[in-house]
Specification:
This protein is an alpha+beta fold and 269 residues long. The protein has helices at 12-63, 207-216, 229-234, and strands spanning 70-77, 80-87, 111-115, 121-127, 134-139, 163-165, 247-252, 258-263.
């Protein structure tokens, strides 16, 4: 006869405990894997924008201007056009790139803006940021007016609009003025990661709030080139309002400090 008394086997309770442990470990592994993939995509987005920025600068060195964004709309401030915004896709030709990069998750082309004189640009993307999305911007645009954001990208699919005013007021397109993308901010995004991958806004941040926020965090004063109103005008950065109200600009004084000054048409002639 075979004696079964010395045989060892898992009890039902031990099996349950083993399954629970394996399940917990699998969940931890899967969660870590998801975070790793998300972080890898964010690294890719940062690399893409850095590569695009370098390629755009090389393009401008050869031709003295930046290529127009695809399907762009015009942003105006004080009746003056300041920015063309669209996408950086296959219709935008950059010699040094055989293929333009796209978002590694949803295949969206990156947002691309240039100033109306085609001398400055801004690129924009959304980061997953471990399930707390935030905006990523790379630009060489320098704001000189205390009434205009240093970042000039709208979180809106505005392909059906020819012009979008960005100053707060009573115009019928007032809703668009709440959709500005502010770098490293979790409120307004260039695009989301859920279909239809449109722009996102929590509808709480107004244009004036963003201006106050930028100035409070010392991210607003960035002029390093212009010493007076004449130079600001020559750089096509002077906003001409159909009123006599001057705008507060930033200029560099003799000690290389940023100071405010009121620029009008009279003191730029």
């Amino acid at each position: 006869m075979i004696n079964n008394k010395n045989k060892k086997a898992f009890t039902f309770v031990e099996l349950i405990v083993s399954v629970v442990i394996i399940t917990i470990l699998s969940a931890i592994w899967f969660s870590s894997y998801v975070w790793y993939i998300s972080d890898s995509r964010d690294s890719q987005r940062k690399s893409d924008l850095s590569q695009l920025s370098s390629s755009l600068k090389v393009y401008k060195q050869k031709r003295w201007y930046y290529w127009n964004p695809w399907n762009a709309f015009n942003m105006t401030y004080g009746w003056t056009g300041i920015v063309f915004q669209g996408k950086l896709n296959q219709n935008v030709h950059i010699d040094s790139l055989e293929k333009l990069p796209i978002d590694p998750n949803n295949g969206q082309y990156y947002s691309y803006s240039i100033t109306t004189n085609k001398q400055e640009f801004e690129l924009a993307s959304s980061l997953e940021n471990w399930d707390y999305p935030k905006a990523l911007l790379i630009w060489n645009y320098k704001s000189v007016s205390k009434s205009i954001l240093p970042t000039i990208t709208l979180a809106i699919d505005a392909n059906h609009w020819d012009n979008i005013e960005i100053k707060e007021g009573t115009a019928s397109w007032n809703i668009n003025r709440k959709l500005f993308v502010y770098d490293n901010n979790m409120h307004n995004l260039v695009y989301t990661f859920e279909e239809p991958y449109g722009a996102y806004s929590d509808w709480e941040l107004s244009f004036s709030w963003l201006l106050d926020e930028a100035e409070t965090n010392n991210n607003f004063w960035q002029n390093s080139d212009y010493r007076n109103c004449v130079e600001i005008k020559e750089a096509d950065k002077l906003i001409i309002e159909p009123t006599t109200t001057p705008f507060d600009y930033q200029v560099i004084d003799d000690d290389w400090f940023l100071v405010g000054t009121w620029c009008t048409i009279s003191n730029t002639q």
